[in-house]
Amino acid sequence: MNDVGALVVEDTEKAELLNAFFASVFTAKTVPHESQTLETRGKVWREEDFPSVGEDWVRDYLAKLDIHKSMGPDGMHPRVLRELADVIAEPLSIIYERSWRTGEVPEDWRKANITPVYKKGKKEDPGNYRPISLTSLPGKIMERLILDVISKYIDHL
């Protein structure tokens, strides 16, 4: 139902209503960030400090993909990535390495399909849905690689 209590039936109207609700919940005022450097307890990260993204590392992550998950906006299904792990591990490791060194992330990895999933209550109330973000699987793997590196670094402090 929209703001005036009328039932919305058209798909585009439903999408606009859910989008407006999700935007109102997740929009926050941001504080301007100062220039960020990779500095921790007085240590400045140099390029040689960054671990390289090995082909075996990427192959291990591809082998752990859940084939029952949905594909992201890039249309890459996890089953395909998992079954082709031996073939695509090398090119992906090169892309990850370049992204890691330059700090640039491919445009497709920043896109997501947002899907509303019903929680509970009246299905007519947009507040009873939560957004699920379907993102690129290669982008998710890169996120896991970065998380592992940061976690290992913090554990050694």
Short key terms for the protein model shown above:
157 residues, alpha+beta, two-stranded antiparallel ribbon, two-stranded antiparallel sheet, 4 strands, Rna-directed dna polymerase from mobile element jockey-like
Report the count of strand segments: 4
Overall radius of gyration? 20 Å
Low-confidence stretches: 33-41
The biggest beta sheet, please?
2 strands, antiparallel
Helices and strands, in order, run as: HEEHHHEEH
User: In one word, what is the shape?
Assistant: elongated
Oligomer: single chain
Measured between the Cα atoms of the first and last residue, the distance is: 52 Å
How large is the count of helical segments? 5
Secondary-structure-derived class: alpha+beta
* Main sheet: strand order: 1-2
Q: How much β-strand is present in the residues?
A: 5-15%
Estimated helix fraction: 40-55%
The average pLDDT is 81
Protein name: Rna-directed dna polymerase from mobile element jockey-like
Organism: Limosa lapponica baueri
Structural topology:
Elements: H1 11-26, E1 39-40, E2 43-44, H2 55-63, H3 78-83, H4 85-102, E3 112-118, E4 129-135, H5 137-155
Antiparallel strand pairs: 1-2, 3-4
Protein name: Rna-directed dna polymerase from mobile element jockey-like
Task: Walk me through what this model shows.
- This protein is of the alpha+beta class and 157 residues long.
- It has a domain at 48-155.
- 43% of the residues lie in helices and 11% in strands.
- It has five helices and four strands.
- The strands form two sheets. A two-stranded antiparallel ribbon has the order 1-2. Strands 3-4 form a two-stranded antiparallel sheet.
- A hairpin with a 2-residue loop joins strand 1 and strand 2.
- Helix 2 crosses helix 4.
- It is elongated and about 60 Å long.
- The termini are far apart.
